[in-house]
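ENTRY TYPE: paired fold submission
RECORD: A
CONTENT: sequence, then structure tokens
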Amino acid sequence: MARSKRGLLLLLTILFFIGAQAQNMKLALLVYNGGGDWYANPTSLKNLAVFCNDQLHTTFSPVEARVEVGSPDIFNFPFIHMTGHGRWALNDAEAQNLRKYLEGGGFLHIDDNYGLDPYVRPALKKVFPELELAELPFTYPIYHQKFNFPNGLPKIHEHDKKPPKGYGLIYKGRLVCFYSYETDLGDGWEDFEVHRDPAEKHIAALQMGANLVQYAFSTIGEKQVKPVEQ
């Protein structure tokens, strides 16, 4: 049964105050419709969970949860990751469910795995018609958690050889969705054998991922700074 927004916020606040120490808490992967390969990075969340356990002293299960965007189960996961190479479509019920989740204290990280960008913006517009994605300044706290990224997101894969950008969706002063573009953090989290990335890129991707997780838990219920003006 779906929790009320107040109930979700209370749950997330409790999880924050116990330092994400709940046994077998899971990072969640968003399952979505439209034809995109939401399953594109099968080892990424496992490695991020292990890295967070080591560096942030969390106790995440290495086994990810998979949750459908329209399911009431979405309310059980404070941090949800989404990836893919394209085609994300939301129906009205899914958009409403995702909005309730984000309004209630949930956090969504979307990582463009190359090709997802044309679908991210209209989908988020359906969720929050009144909001705009805005690029976050390099001074934004998400880049300065356990690990310091003074120049913003690390560049993991080249793609179109554009600089990496981090966008935020701000609802009532709270960052509810972080969108990483032209970086491919999720690929960087994967096992070495998958992409054979240099060790420094793998570590940088995991460090930025840990920042996302730490930030999502440590800012529950707090007002946050504004994004850079566009």
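RECORD: B
CONTENT: sequence, then structure tokens
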Amino acid sequence: MTGITFRWGTTLNENPVFAPWPELADISISNHCTKGCEFCYRDSKNDNSFMSLEDYIYILEELNHPEWGNVFQVAIGGGEPLEHPQLKEIIEATISYNVVPNLTTNGHHLTEEIVAFLEQRIGAIALSINDIKQLKMHNLDLLRRRNIRTNIHYLLKNDNIGQAIEILNGAFNHCLSGINSIIFLTYKPLGRASNSNCLVLNDALKTFVKLIDKQNVATRIGFDACFVPLLLHFTNTNVDFIDSCECGFFSIYIDENLNVKPCSFATDDKYTFNLRTISFKDIWEIKYSGYRNSIINQCRRRCKNKDHCRGRCPYYDEINYCYSNVQEEILYVEDKLASA
């Protein structure tokens, strides 16, 4: 459960374009949640839309390849997974298939009892927040005492970019000490999330990006795949530490109705297939070949790391911050930011 994996192609020196079998499956075991966050991209509701344990085990069977074996790990989410009545059985089933379970939660239902159960069973837990001042220190203390690897998933959006700058400057290190990392997730307008809170290429975002190379956070920082183009173009982050979008290439998403998608944020059903009607093996090996061929970096902007970038997000023009159709186009974020 170290989280370390090794990837190679036909030789140890080759970085493959995609995996013969996914390394990670992101599985929503429900779309049930009682919290009602206004930015919920899944529009989760208090409706008891739970995946059955039998369906979850069916997914695990489908994710086992006769030659390549299992996926390495799953990210169990929702909805709110801690509200699923069979969460413990789901985690135990995952382990029985020699797959590492991880959990993404809002943390509101963490208790001493559930944390004791999770100890020695999960690879990591992610606490989702959009305001670090609302982080419940009691929950962190529960997880720290059990030595559970804990990540903060911070939803980065237009109305909290100022706080995110403060985080990079170290203003909240007292909250972050002793956790594994804080991961900044790019806000996307889906579900109850609106366009009005998408990040904007303004002075605040430029300040945030500039700070990445000289941040003063008490733990490791990371970013989701949607932020990778900005990292590659405007920071000096070692490209060996960055993976471009892996959806449909090295990872997969499966919802509570057994729908398979390249990404949980997909806005159309062009590459959505249901496991009740088609095997996962055929989805990954045949159906997604067209998707992979369509994801070609067509950005014409001069970029020092273009060869390492997957390019623009195929679903959201709103978050394609450095994409350009024109070779010499001058964007709001100046090229000099990369060397500042």
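NOTES ON RECORD B: Residues 25 and 252 are 5 Å apart (CA to CA). The first helix runs from residue 53 to 62.
STATUS: closed
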